[in-house]
Amino acid sequence: MTFEHWSLLSSQGWLFVVLASTACFINHASTMREKTRVMQWISKLFSLNMVIAMLLVGWATVMAGVFNSTQDPKDNQSQKVIIDLSNIVTEFGQFFEYFWQFLIVASLFGSVFAINRYGLIRQVLAKQGILAFVAAALICIIIVTPIFASLVLWLPLNTPDIILFPSSFHHVFAPANYQFIFSLLAISTPLILVFERQQQNAVVTQISFQKTHTELKLLQQQINPHFLFNTLNNLYALILTKSDDAPSLVVKLSNLLRYTVYEGQKEQVTLAQEVTYLQDYIALEQIRSLDKCTLDLKWPENAEQFTLPPLLIIMLIENAFKYGVEPTIEKSHIRFHMQLNKNILTVICENPIFTHKHNKASGLGLENLSRRLTLLYPGKHTISSGPIGELWCAKMTLDLTSC
Fold this sequence. Notes:
Strand content: 5-15%
Distance between the termini: 58 Å
Number of strands: 8
Largest sheet: 5 strands, mixed
Radius of gyration: 36 Å
Shape: elongated
Strand order of the largest sheet: 2-4-5-7-6
Number of helices: 12
């Protein structure tokens, strides 16, 4: 068959360009980590088995169309790839006669592919190695070739002048038949191996993502009870002293718990929501500290334009009150600044050191925070903490995402 009528600007050429571009888009879309439902459906539709099946059915359709559009396809002449659609409509019975025969041949090609993928590669190569695979492939060629050749030669389309199998005569044991089956295995093996490797990588990536997500949930759950216990202790102390601030504390505690339960389970909240949460927490701590703590606070502008994971900053201010205010009856001072520079958030927290256990006691919380940042902001964050003179200083920067 010749392709002398093809040209770059012909309809066939443009159709080829469109099909190639579509295939590239589908391949790119299928590699996206977070797929929409449409992309997931497309990915399943264009699995390797489905693509092979569509190609084989397409080949059978094209061959049947070419034969149906040729005046005498059985005289073994050189045929041009021309399909006359009107001829297919008017002589659909003849087209279908060609189609089902070519479809059987295509099904045999697909069977070779299936035997190679699910038998030779998955059962032999993957479990027993390359030598066993080569031996099994040779045995498969010896057994399968005469069987498939017999099935093809049974088709009515075969005549003394035209044969649908590579051999030029009606002989199932012809060397050309064995060479053809060998070629099918040789071509399909690297294709299958590449696809299988891609599938394995996708599974490993998904498992890694699920593991990371589970680890983040566990780390977040370690933070939430810690805050709850501290707040309940605050409320208990105020009730014992019959403080007038107890009702206000209950209201603020309710707001904080509502945020923790509902917003705290989301993957992202606005920076403005997180700031409000921190402000409520600080107000609650001020009630308990009975004004023995002075604060230097600075909040970011345009906080509603950016998002971040919830409960990510609370650990810094919690530690500041726990180790810079609670251990002493003296006046203390906390400096807590949050500043936005474009999309870079900088958080600075400083508090006095009243106990040498500060570093060791707060180690678990800071370790959890550091681990969460590593998982959530790989390469897009910094965090440091330690004593500077009589102060404990913690600094964190985050590369935030805009809404």
